[in-house]
Known about the structure:
Layout: H1 2-6, H2 12-28, H3 38-56, E1 59-60, E2 67-68, H4 72-78, H5 84-101, H6 107-113, H7 129-139
Antiparallel strand pairs: 1-2
Amino acid sequence: MNKFMLSSLLSKNLKIKIYRNIFFPVVLYGCETRSLTLREEHRLRLFENRVLRRIFGPKREEVTREWRKLNNEEFNDLYSSPIIVRVIKIEKNEMGGSCSAYGKRRGVYRVLVGKPEGKRLLGRPRRKWEDNIKMDLQEMRCGGMNWI
């Protein structure tokens, strides 16, 4: 797909449609069930910025007539859709809300609130899916409520 993104024959609007309809669903597949680490969030932002750089290309300064790369804020102004990490967090919160609404008799709810039996391994425990939802809600300034 690199040839399409660098092609001068395709318009920017068509390239954005290709990104939204081909790349976005592939990257977002199953995103609501994964626990994102900070490293994965960083890599997703890098991926998105790299694709947007290929779509929009460099910008020519009007005063100095020199070419320069666009910074991330300028990409956000040009590309009005939400950032990919934010979309993943919204999808995860919607999935958590629907799982908690199922009720106590459904298996999904039992998996969500259940405690595993047995002894855990040494070291710091991995971040749970539920913990990620709580952190996302705090980031969106809804942290004081019980999300379930």
